[in-house]
Design a protein that fits this description.
CATH superfamily: NAD(P)-binding Rossmann-like Domain
Helix content: 40-55%
Number of helices: 12
Distance between the termini: 55 Å
CATH topology: Rossmann fold
Bound molecules: nicotinamide-adenine-dinucleotide, 2'deoxy-thymidine-5'-diphospho-alpha-D-glucose
Largest sheet: 7 strands, parallel
Number of domains: 1
CATH class: Alpha Beta
Number of strands: 12
Low-confidence stretches: none
Mean pLDDT: 97
Radius of gyration: 19 Å
Structural class: alpha/beta
Shape: globular
């Protein structure tokens, strides 16, 4: 058996990866380490909680006493744990620095002492390149993060690289574009707009709605990470992008149409501060290893809308009963004037 540590495995991408890897790799003994912040949900791991090939550890990656021994016993670490929502980082950046930068440092320090470690996968993001007006970011491009979240991720990304260059920690960095799919917390644009649309309440579109994101289905992201684990080279960076560039306004119309709601639900609200206009990735390096996205955007978005329709018991308690969520929603949208 291969001992695999997945940090942040109760979150959106982490839980999809744990479920996917549990099926795809019967020889993996998976440990999920997760602090269960507002974004971490035990329900996301229900499918593997009874498996003898999965163990859940409740803990903080920045706590060396908990994280250190888990890293040192692993052959593979896939590090997803992070504070991830840009708008929250604009409200307050402290948790982003603590988890994304210091937490990653704690894991990397332990990785230096892990005798059997073959790979440390640092899950980074296309946001580290900053806004890209034209063309597509390549792995060798300069990093120009422009918000506290992306700056904290750039710090972690380069820390992982430095531990490879300096100490030969077998780190590989992946930079993915915007993910979508099941179990995404209803603060991100797709699950927020889908669940608002289901409830027939307005969807708050920032600014002119012409910002562009490249959408990647979470299953394609999982497959991309798997290819990198298998065939990547230590010390290298790999972009993982869906190749689905869509403006936010176009995305919003598609969601409303799939939900059977009118476009009059769109509310143009004040823009995000420092809002990156566009992200786009050149994925030829990963494609060269044999990866290509398999989920078409139309099909993936329709399936995602269906998932939220069929899993109201997953998101309604968050949106309707979780006081912390309601406080966040009020702070983020309550006083947002029209743009
Ligand atoms: P998420 O917010 O849904 O989940 C994050 C998980 O990390 C949660 O389970 C949370 O409890 C856990 N966590 C947070 N702080 C922790 C700590 N200190 N110790 C242990 N666990 C902690 O995030 P996501 O969208 O699934 O993103 C996962 C990773 O992928 C992140 O590193 C993110 O930067 C990266 N990423 C996300 C996207 C995207 O579109 N969502 C795209 C590219 C890269
Ligand atoms: O690009 C990868 C990144 O994608 C990840 O690294 C981040 O963890 C993830 O949160 C995501 O960041 P974005 O800021 O791109 O995602 P978000 O869903 O917050 O916003 C997507 C776009 O939609 C963005 O242009 C802002 C806009 N938006 C978002 C919200 C929440 C709105 O117009 N209204 C909203 O209410």
């Amino acid at each position: 058996m291969t001992n695999v540590l997945v940090t942040g495995g109760a979150g959106f991408i982490g839980s999809n990866f744990v479920r996917w890897a549990h099926n795809a790799h019967p020889d993996w003994q998976i440990t999920t380490l997760d602090k269960l912040t507002y974004a971490g949900r035990m329900e996301n791991l229900a499918a593997v909680m009874d498996s003898p090939r999965h163990r859940f550890v409740h803990g903080d990656i920045a706590d060396a006493a908990v994280a250190g021994p888990l890293v040192r016993e692993s052959e593979l670490v896939v590090h997803f744990a992070a504070e991830t929502h840009v708008d929250r980082s604009i409200q307050s950046a402290a948790d982003f620095i603590t988890t994304d930068v210091i937490g990653t440092f704690v894991l990397l320090e332990a990785a230096r002492q892990a005798p059997n470690l073959k790979r440390f996968i640092q899950i980074s993001t296309d946001e580290v390149y900053g806004s890209v007006p034209t063309g597509a970011s390549r792995e060798t491009d300069e990093l120009r993060p422009r918000n506290p979240y992306s700056a904290s991720k750039a710090g972690a990304d380069r820390l992982a690289y430095s531990y490879w260059a300096t100490y030969n920690v077998p780190a590989i960095i992946t930079r993915a574009s915007n993910n979508y799919g099941p179990n995404q917390f209803p603060e991100k644009v797709i699950p927020l707009f889908v669940t608002n649309a289901i409830d027939n309440i307005p969807v708050p579109l920032y600014g002119d709605g012409l910002n562009v994101r490249d959408w990647l289905h979470v299953d394609d992201h999982c497959r991309g990470i798997d290819v990198v684990i298998d065939s990547g080279t230590n010390g290298e960076v790999y972009n993982i992008g869906g190749g689905n560039e869509v403006t936010n306004v176009d995305l919003t119309h598609r969601i409303l149409e799939l939900a059977g709601r009118p476009s009059t639900l769109i509310r143009k609200v004040a823009d995000r501060q420092g809002h990156d206009r566009r992200y786009a990735l050149d994925t030829s390096k990963l494609r060269g290893l044999g990866w290509a996205p398999q989920v078409g955007f139309e099909q993936g978005l329709a399936a995602t809308v269906d998932w939220y329709r069929q899993n109201e018991t997953w998101w309604r308690p968050i949106k309707e009963q979780d006081q912390a969520y309601r406080t966040y929603y009020q702070a983020q949208y309550g006083t947002r004037a029209g743009a």
